[in-house]
Amino acid sequence: MSLKAEAGPYFGDFGGRFVPESLVAALDELTNEYALARSDPAFAAELMELHRTYTGRPSIITEVPRFAAHAGGARVILKREDLNHTGSHKINNVLGQALLTKRIGKTRVIAETGAGQHGVATATAAALFGLDCVVYMGEVDTERQALNVARMRLLGAEVVPVTTGSRTLKDAINDAMRDWVTNVENTNYIFGTVAGPHPFPAMVRDFQKIIGEEARQQVLDLTGRLPDAVTACVGGGSNAMGIFHAFLDDADVALYGYEAGGDGAETLRHAATITKGRPGILHGARSFLLQDEDGQTVESHSISAGLDYPGVGPEHSWLASIGRATYLPITDAEAMNALRLLSRTEGIIPAIESAHALAGTLDLGKRLGPDSTILVNLSGRGDKDMETAGRYFDLLDKGAAQL
Amino acid sequence: MTTTTSTVESTIASRRQQGGGALIGYLPVGFPTLSESIDAAVALVAGGVDILELGLPYSDPVMDGPVIQAATQQALANGFRLRHGIEAVAAITAQVDAPVLVMTYWNPIVQYGVDRFADDLHSAGGAGLITPDLIPDDAAAWFAASDRTGLDRVFLAAPSSSDARLAQAVQASRGFVYAVSTMGITGARSDVDSAARVLIDRLRAVGSTSACVGLGISTPSQVREILGYADGAIVGSALVKALAEGGLPLLAVLARDLAAGARDIRPAV
After folding, report:
1. Taking 90 as the threshold, does the pLDDT of residue A250 lie above it?
2. What confidence score (pLDDT) does residue A389 get?
3. What does UniProt give as the signal peptide span (chain B) (predicted)?
4. Residue A343: what pLDDT?
5. Are A291 and B76 a contacting pair at CB < 8 A?
């Protein structure tokens, strides 16, 4: 059977709907409305028109030979999701779900955000469609991504710093779910990644799979054949599912997901969920999970707020379990070195999240050799990370730091 | 509902026949400490609570409001382990006859092992589980374990649930169906939603004979109002707040007041 045909609620043993009964009606409504929208040519046409005139799709591909010289001489091609409006792949999904919100007739949207990219994208779509918008963001993340908080507020969204638990993405999701349980009558939850209860993993994947569909054809046009490998970073996993999906049934194309290894996957400070976790239930789905013996969620750590999540989408857990995709950890240091390398060799500053995919590609290229071609999802741009990078590389002089 | 010897169900039915309804009291295990939480549960029963609902602290409690979140986070910080939940049930059932249900999010049970947890809970004298984030659709393992051990399984019903889902919740539950009074999370509210009365009527229409209302109930008059139409009233955050602010003495006073609200509502049968 085609791997691409999987549509939930379960992907193998992973997925499901482990949610309070109060949310089931809303999830059913979303599932039904999405099914109708999917088969409605007018919905697809409206979304494609938005992508063409607002997002800036199709995004280009860029071959990066000076960077590739450090990757064993393999041919390296970047899919430039960093050039999308709002600076990352997140807008692909948000516009789809915002259109769906309009279709359902709800007037308020909520979202969780880690790095702020999904929050910014949601605030942007809310402004575009005239929807009320509340974004939940862990207090730790509001501090390390202060610029994105300002962007969301400028766009008219209310940003709620979440002070419970580890005060990061997982707690932001908890508070967004509590809001949704309470306000489900007028509120749609625009979920940012391929995790959560059904239908989110399949629906978000469907809104993101345009990345791989475009890139597959673009690489064919450029090189005359499919790439040997496709790489992406994996937090919840939406950009990775987005670029993997078109290639799932191309058995000769290897798929690599790079998780946040933090201080090292062998330490206690990482977010390498598939590498180090085991199956469990969090945020409505059964998937790999960082947890203790009792099933209490363990706090994750990554220099990249967007990958700092102890869970992962169920479709990734399934792809890992059947061996279709390979998931490997990349440390903070490896990611930051790759970020600097791409900046200096190609003049492209990637998001720290995407730099994990670049770091993995450097190693993969050496293994696959100079005859190979690797397609990398450059999921976001690094503007939001300048403060983190400035501190990491000691680039800020005293005058600049005091600005 | 399946034929059963559920003590939870018979306790509720007996309170109804006496002209009132059942008072169900929630407290988290391990708050403020394990031994104090055991004493607090025993004090609830002494004060007149008919059925205990013991919450197992969990890192990501999406159905809980700030009062219960704060208490369960403290319990986790103090080193709560799942086995403490079983130990607490055993210690409480050794001292009181009131049935003890455990309220738990699902992942801890999955990690402990559904069958192993069911066996250990049964051995400790526990009556069953209330599962706020497990719906009957995804509960096959729990159906098997609860049928094998005879444990009660309490599923939730919400104002937003379709009639078909309410019928499913009634069919799937043993002990009672937990009717969520309002769309929201745990925490005291000044008015209990009129949605609760409508929900109970809808549950009756699909055959429920044991339906209890929870979420937002904190006063004796709210208990009395709810037991005018429901079989039981569930109080949680108000008890946790009393325990946090006034220890066992304040908890005992509140339990007595709430229990008074649950009695003599109509003539005994």
Report:
1. yes
2. 95
3. none
4. 98
5. no
- Cα distance between residue A336 and residue A179, in whole Å: 36
Q: Decide if A127 is inside a domain.
A: yes
Residue B244: what residue type?
A
Phi and psi of A186, rounded to 5°?
Answer: -115, 5
Residue A288: closest C-alpha in chain B: B107
Q: What are A75's two structure tokens? A: 């041919």
Distance from CA of B246 to the nearest CA of A (A): 24
Q: What is the mean pLDDT of residues A331-338?
A: 98
Asked if A154 and A247 sit in the same domain, the reply is no
Q: Give contacts of B 60-79 with A, CB under 8 A.
A: 60-63, 65, 69, 73, 76
Provide the token pair at B112: 């402990």
DSSP structural state of residue A76? E
pLDDT at B182: 84
Is there a single domain that holds both residue A108 and residue A146?
A: yes
Residues B71, B90 contacting (CB under 8 angstroms)? no
Task: Read off φ and ψ for residue A292, nearest 5 degrees.
Answer: -90, -175
Assess if residue A120 is contained within a domain: yes
Asked if A31 and A144 sit in the same domain, the reply is yes
For B190, residues 6+ apart whose C-beta sits below 8 A from its C-beta are: none
Residues of chain A found within 8 Å of residue B183, distances taken between Cβ atoms: 22, 181-185
Q: Any idea what the CATH number is for the domain that residue A346 is in? A: 3.40.50.1100
User: Smallest Cα–Cα separation from A310: which of A171, A148, A208, A142?
Assistant: A171
Span A111-135, pLDDT tens digits: 999 889 999 999 999 999 999 999 9
Same domain membership, residue A326 and residue A234: yes
Mutate to test the interface with B, among A18, A30, A169, A278 (most CBs of B within 10 A): A18
Average pLDDT per run of 10 along chain B, which is 269 residues long? 76 97 98 98 98 97 94 97 98 98 98 98 98 97 98 97 98 98 80 86 98 95 96 98 98 98 90
> Where exactly are the structural domains of chain B?
7-258
Q: How confident is the model at residue A398 (pLDDT cuts 50, 70, 90)?
A: low
Q: Are residues A284 and A190 in the same domain?
A: no
What's the whole-model pTM score?
0.96
Q: Can you give the pLDDT at residue A9?
A: 97
Number of CB atoms found within 10 A of residue B96's CB: 16
Which of A204, A234, A253 lies at the terminal end of a domain, its last residue?
A204
- The reported pLDDT for the residue numbered B192 is 73
CA–CA separation, B176 and B61 (whole Å): 22
| Candidates B106, B160, B184; nearest CB to A18 | B106
ipTM field: 0.95
B53 among known catalytic residues: yes
**Residue A41 domain-assigned (yes or no):** yes
pLDDT of residue A52: 98
Please state the rounded mean pLDDT for residues A200-217: 98
pLDDT-derived band at A402, boundaries 50, 70, 90? very low
Domain count, chain A: 2
Yes or no: say if A74 and A67 are a contact pair by the CB < 8 Å rule: no
Structural domain span for residue A213: 58-87+209-398
Q: Within this chain, do residues A172 and A33 fall inside the same structural domain, yes or no?
A: yes
Residue of B nearest to A176 (CA): B62
Q: Which CATH class is domain B7-258?
A: alpha beta
Does any CB of chain A come closer than 8 Å to the CB of residue B82?
yes
Q: Quick one: A200 and A270 in the same domain?
A: no
> How many of the other CB atoms lie within 10 Å of CB of A77?
23
Return phi, psi of residue A348, to 5°: -125, 120
Question: What does the pLDDT read at residue A164?
Answer: 87
B9 has catalytic annotation: no
The verdict on a CB contact (< 8 Å) between A18 and B133 is yes
Does residue B106 belong to the interface with chain A, where contact is any CB pair within 8 Å?
yes
Position A312 in a domain? yes
pLDDT at A400: 55
State residue A304's pLDDT score. 93
- Inter-chain residue contact B156 with A20, CB threshold 8 Å: yes
Domain end point (choices A161, A179, A204): A204
Same-domain status, A391 and A354: yes
**Closest Cβ–Cβ partner in A16, A174, A184 for B183:** A184
